[in-house]
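2.7 Reproducibility. Because tokenized structures are sensitive to small changes in the input, we list the exact sequence used for Hydroxyacid dehydrogenase, including any N-terminal residues retained from the expression construct. No trimming or masking was applied before prediction.
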Amino acid sequence: MSRTVLVTRTRIHPEAVTMLNENGFECLFSPPYASGEEVVRVAREARVDAIMVSQGRITREVMAASSALKVVVKHGSGVNNINLAAAEDLGIPVYRAVGANARSVAEHAIALMLSLLKSLPHLDKATKGGQWLKSSFVGRDIRGARLALVGLGEIGREVATLARGLGMEISAFDPGCDAAAREALGRDDIKVVDAIEDMLADADVVSLHCPLTPATHHLVNRSFLARLKPEAVLVNTARGGIVDEEALAEALFAGTLAGAGIDSFEQEPPAPDLALWAAPNLIVSPHAAGLTPGAERAMATMAAQLIIDHLAGKPVPPKFHAKAAALGGLQE
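Resulting structure tokens (single pass, no recycling of outputs):
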């Protein structure tokens, strides 16, 4: 008898579909950002055995809708759209495809950094507007630029690897780093600081790679931004709720921050009239840092394998478990 996996997006990599089919699973695709009521209805009527989560919110009501539901797996690593506490109450494990899109997201973060440090938004607009700035413009060097990483998980470490190849000087803050990790990172010329404030004042780039939890919600607020020098730029390829978007817009308009590259937003899709849209030196993308062919394949096949392994009774390594105490999850 076939079992059903509800996928909260319109497609996943064909290899993952084949894996699931060969192990007795049928994929049921949901429109992106479908309403909670619609997802509940589909889950209940199909009596889904598993949910592969991409877009939309997986609430307590969604997980309780199917009495057959045994596992929830994230097609990616961020779980702020899954109510982890409710899943634990219901006895439903939640796993995530940790590291599957790390390289892709890291490349996107580096692309945003380079574009901002090289003033590409400003130069693009000026040149198209008839201003030829060759005689007055002076750019910035990447070699020797100081990069401050907030978070040293799979993605943060990939960013560090790429940045080190460009000659950047790297500092990082991650309260999860133990003494052994600090020693290893030090050998890679990454300075791990004890307090996040210790690396902000001198940073040319601050790049966010931490999960969204109650503790990191609006971590980047007015006070945080005030610690940065006016020449600094901010890159967020993590989660939108980590940044206070109103405070960011104020800093960009005031010129107390040189630029920002933002791939995720507190509300997705964001409102068309978001004040941030009018801010200068801003580059945005639609939470697309992890959407490359390699990352899509890796996320889908890893998520599919986690579903297959769990329902086959095989142990899932702890690194893939998503727990509310560590990661927060969706707050209802």
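The longest strand covers residues 3-7.
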